[in-house]
Each structure stands twice: as C-alpha cells, then as structure tokens.
Amino acid sequence: MAFQQVALLLLILATTSLFDAEGYDSLDPDANITIKWDIMAWTADGYVAYVALYNYQRYRHIRAPGWSIGWTWPKKEVIWSMLGAEATERGDCSSFKDAIPHNCEQTPTLVDLMPGAPYNQQVRSCCKGGVLRSWVQNGAPDVGFFTMTVGQSETTDTDVRLPTNFTLKAPGLGYTCGSASIVEPTKFPTADKRRVTQAFMTWNVTCTFSPFIARKMPTCCVSLSAFYDSNIVSCPTCSCGCRSNTSSPQICAERDAVNSFEPLVRCSDHMCPIRIHWHIMMNYKEYWRVKVTITNFHYRMNYSDWNLVIQHPNFDDMARSFSFNYKSLSLYGTINDTVVLWGINFFNDILMQSGPDGYIQTELLFYKDRAPFTLEDGWAFPRAVLFDGDYCQMPPPDIYPSLPKIESKLYYTSISVIVAAIVISVVIIFVTVYVHKLTVK
C-alpha cells in the first residue's frame, strides 16, 4: 500500500511539473507581462492608482484586439473614474444616487482605449487598442498605461488590501497571473531631473504565457528543400488540423472560392495559415547560403509586425540577412544559436493575406565553421522555428533532404581507381627499371 501511495504521489508531481513546464519557454526564459500598480494619492474614501502593463517578452506581441485585465476587489471597492482605459461594463450601481461610479463590479474587466480617443481621456502610453509590441522589435519593453480613482475601499496607508485573482487575456487565453506582491515604491523623476517623487505603495503582478493553455493545434508549419536533393519535404499532413476531421472541421476554401466573411485558410494538406520554407541554396568554400520564405495561407489575415524565431547552431557565425532585420537572443552566455527576424518598415513588415502578394522571403548567408559544418544528417536545417511566438510543426528528421548516395559511391570508387592506378604505375616503373638493368648486364 505504501508503494502504491508513493507511486501515485510521484505521478502527481510529474504531471504537475509537466503542466508547469508548459509556461516556460527555453528560448525566452524570462518572458512575462508585468502589471505594476502604484498608489499615488489618498482620497476621502480610497486612492488614485497608476497602473502599467510591461511586455517583457522578446518576440511575442499582444495583438489586436489587445489586452484585457481583471481582478477581484478585496472589499466593496468601486472605480469612480478612469483615464487611458475603461471597464467593459458598469455593473450594478443602483445604490448610488448622486455621483455614479465608472464601474461597480466586484470583478471588473478593463481594456485599453483605442487610438484617437478624446484628449481629455488620455494619459501617456495609453490608447493603443491594447496592442503591445515585442521587446526586440520595439527596442525596449512596450508599455500600456492608465489611471483610476478607487473608492469605497475604507483604506488608509496602513491597511491597504491588495486585489486578488488577477487575469490577463491578450487577447485570448494563454496567460496565467500570480498573486500581487508588494515591492519598493516606484520613483518618478520630474522632467528637469531635479526632483524625484515616489508612490505611496507599489505592487507587481507577473503573468506568464503557456502555449498549452492558449491552443491545442499549431498555427504554422515548416517545409524543407536543398540544392542537392530534388525532393521537397512538405509540411506534415494535418499540422494545424485536418479537412476531413468531422468532429472539428477546419474552415478552408480553394483559391477562387472565397465567398463568405468567415475566417478561413486556403485548403492544403497541412491546413496551416502560415508556412515557412527553408531551402539550402549553395555551398561555397567559405560560406553557405539559405533562402527562407514565409507564405500566408489565410484569406482574411494580414500579419503586421510579424517576427520569425529560428534556432540553428550556425547563427553564431551568421554573416548577413539580405531583406529582414535580425537580432540574436544570446540566451546562454557565449552560445548564440537563436535569432529573431522581422520585416523592414514600409517594405516587408506586413505579410499580406493569401494571394499573389501573400509571401515574403530573404536569404541568409553564414560563415562556414569547418569543424561542425556538414550537409549530412540534417545538420543544415533548423532545430526549431516560431512565427509570432508560436512553435511551428517541423517535419520528422528521418525524411529530411539527404545527400545523394550515388555521389558517395562515386567518390569512394574514384579514390579506389586512383589508388589502383598509382599502384599499377609504380609496378610498371619497377618492372621496367628491373628489365633495363638485366639487359645492360
């Protein structure tokens, strides 16, 4: 009985670890969305709070329709007013007769204002429609910001109770938020840098992304080819779903049969809206060259500010990307095997929907380190590919393009012929010299 209990406990721990690991990305180990909450002033029945959302994810955007956050109030708090954001519902404010709060819900849900909001409703870093760009493409952690006046908290500076059960949708599922934790009060320097003020109280909430929670199917796939193999390795069948799956049919259409306004993709064996193709173009003496093509199979979707993450050991010796921006992630000290690639502004930063212009491509030039470099055993193909933060389905390694076996046989045959010719030549020379000596005698 004791053995069975121990085995059950180990199984539970292993399962828990597995699910926790889904929220950890080895290519972006410190990725998170941090919600910072600063109390800046006390009021008669509550306080004024500054709230900021920081995107500390290197390559994952928060895309339209943007973020929404929520929490549970510890008492009977209400939001009297807001700038830079708004609650999606007012809630039941029937108990208020004179002044009506902006929100009376116990668990409010807040969203960012849209661009172009009235100036008297704006604050700095607000009004982006909830969109936050990735850290690499933005050059720094992108931030969304709003202020609110909280009432009915019955709070003083000594008995503030923190909200609980924070949630973040960005815009769909995938993020899990921890508990609020009190940190050092935020300091705010004035514009002239001569004076610094600070919040009365500050707490942080950290939210991390889990692909396991976000979706069950990939949204992109990878195909492969090489100059030395006439075969093209296609995306695995049903990479992003199957057309024939009656229990969960995928919406797709042929190229000239798009008649509805439903989100749909071009019919294919892989059923992915995005396909990335990696083609080994050339093998020079000191370099080798790859072409990367991104194709959009989605009839209703333009991808703006897209990015591509690729893991390959030769990125440590990358010479040039010809038509994409790129930046190394440099995750583990001197190891540099992962880069982020993205479009050039006003040139290819928008990946158009499926059609004649629904693809973009670049060429990557690598220095050749002769120690690890080889075209055998799939070494020249990527280890992992992500599009807009989602892992793409890779083909199985046993079907990667391979060097023709006939070349190897011809190579070894040629070597054998040369060696045999040398041996025969040496024998002929030796016999000729020996016969000449006998003749002279």
UniProtKB/TrEMBL annotation:
Taxonomic placement: Eukaryota, Viridiplantae, Streptophyta, Embryophyta, Tracheophyta
UniProt subcellular location: Cell membrane
Protein's name according to its UniProt entry: COBRA-like protein
Record InterPro entries: COB_C, COBRA_pln
Entry superkingdom: Eukaryota
Signal peptide: 1-21
Membrane topology field: Lipid-anchor; GPI-anchor
Organism of derivation: Prunus avium (Cherry)
UniProt keywords, alphabetically: Glycoprotein, GPI-anchor, Lipoprotein, Membrane, Signal, Transmembrane, Transmembrane helix
One Gene Ontology term, aspect cellular component: side of membrane
COBRA C-terminal domain sequence ranges: 219-252, 261-401
Family to which the UniProt record says this protein belongs: Belongs to the COBRA family.
A Gene Ontology biological process term: plant-type cell wall cellulose biosynthetic process
Transmembrane annotation, as ranges: 410-435
